[in-house]
Amino acid sequence: MSKSWMVWGTWLLLTLIAIFVVVMWMTVSGDRDLLLIGKTTDAHHQIEMACETCHAAGSFASTKAATKAINKSCRNCHDDELSKADDSHPRKKFRNPRMAAYWEKLDARLCTSCHIEHRPELTRESAVTVAMNFCIACHSEGDQDVRQIRPSHAGLTFDTCASSGCHNFHDNRSLYADFLVKHANDDWLAPSPIHQLSALYLARDQSSNRRLADFKAIAPASSLTDSTVVDDWAGSAHASSDINCGNCHAPGIADNQERLQVEANWVDDPDLGVCKDCHKNETRTFRQGRHGMRQHPKIANPRDTDRQLQQLGLDQLMPAFLKSWFSDPVHPLHMTVAEARLPMHKNASDQVLNCGTCHNPHAVDVRHAAVEACLGCHSDDHSVAYKDSRHYALWQAESSGDAAPGTGVSCATCHMAKVKRRGKITVSHNQNDTLRPNEKMIRPVCLDCHGLSFALDSLADESLIQRNFNGKPSVHVPSISWAVQREKEDEESDR
Amino acid sequence: MQILINKSVAFVVTMMTVFAVEAVAQGVSYQRVADMLYLVLSADRAVYTEKVVQRLTLDEQVIMVSEHFEDDAALPLPSQMFRFGSEYVADETEDFSYSLVSLDPINKKNGPGTDLEREGLEFVVDNPDEAFYGEEELGGQLYFAAVYADIAVAEACASCHNNHQDSPRDDLEVGDVMGGVIIRIPVE
After folding, report:
1. pLDDT greater than 80 at residue A429
2. Rounded to two decimals, what is the model's pTM?
3. Which of A75, A437, A461, B27 is the least crowded, having the fewest Cβ atoms under 10 Å away?
């Protein structure tokens, strides 16, 4: 065989191997990191290996069908929070054909008009991938020209609309003019600052507790040797709510008081999925948030290489070592601290994010989950500064019984919103409910203790946020005074 | 309250969509379908205004009606109820759409957005007992469009519009045309 044929043969063989590897990565491999076309936005890196979640239209779908599928996947996860936010620019408003003239300016029917994935070079705050003066598209001409309708806006440029604490594209519940006027005379601090829903929630938690005797724990004798665990349980809300060992360690049995049934079905380390049977709302919101989004029911599970090979009829042909290579490593179903993009303590890297990470299932101490659990992992400036803040001092006073429930401010007060619905208070485990844009926090959190103007100014002061609100804001958002001025002028013109 | 509103709107929208698609398929003219849709819309709106809003806010005085109905734990304004239905339809189907528009809108986005809307609104202001019909192309699709007069049927309608900070008019009276309802059906 000539040298030339050897070279060509080797080239052909290597090319075929390369094509085979790429095709296998695309179609069967569990881990597809190498196929990522660009860094994903914000916390989406947690689900970036669940490609099918967004790219649901199939490999050979038209651009239109692929775009439609991607936008549907956005709505699958974010519709709920947009609906709660009373979205100012909902898709349904722009689907009416009378809005056709706007479709060419900025097509608000599609999330992807402003939020494109895998384009880090275009990505701005809140995962926006268009220029921040996007309001100009629809609010700068004719009857919609805001500089004409609002004299206070005459000299403004459009790049400040959504970056100054005045407006958001989606959530304006704390920013609309009548609300600003209503709260124009708020003091910076309420005379008796208490976060009402936290007070009610914590009072509920304490009043429902009644310590049981340790012997009430029904479990195999070998599992009752750790007196701390048993003692923690006996004093917990679980015990006083008749949740005995068998409810979690022997799930599915008919009677948690039947020792024989409990012993026969005992599981030492139950899947923490047992929590969801009782804590439905907490589980649902946990899966919508940054700690549990991989478990959201609309997110594709990690790809199973064996099943993919079976579907392609290759499972018998593929050697075991290749199967193993393509299926490993598959991203775990639960997020780990090591995968976080935010600064975290190195010694927490191995933590897996599930219910038990923050909640000791036996002690069920919500106060631990509200502060120490967070600070055990998070090490960014804002988190580290918390223990030097006035908010933490208030939390300590409350926790030691020197101040009333609801007077302290924990991490959870701001980032785990309490929700009252039909007389029942639950804790949303979706941090997005109050996180970004940060004005979302004003109504459910800040306004119980602070005035609107102080809250707006504080949340617009990035340096103050990093110092965990240790001090007073050095930024002033003028929206309240503008709204009040307009109200006055309107009243005067009516006279 | 919100769930009740959503469910009521969803039921009406589903029935209207089934009706509109079937009617056009059976060879009923676009004009006739639009007229019938308008009858349903205006009837529902009148029932909400009289049997819910007026009865509970004015007669029995048990609840307020408010533009910020969620903040104020109040009833939505009849025009908001109408718009919610319109948005619900837009979310569910492209088989037809409807809007509440005006030559003197409180919210500027509800002003005439196309030449046909302006022509139709001017026609119904002059001829409140008649509808305006026409065709226009929007976003590459041809639509049959019908415009019907939206009349201030109660003192509350006129006074609310007259006193609103963003209203360009303060002289509306009961019986005046405040705007129009426009229904569009894509022409196959």
Report:
1. yes
2. 0.89
3. B27
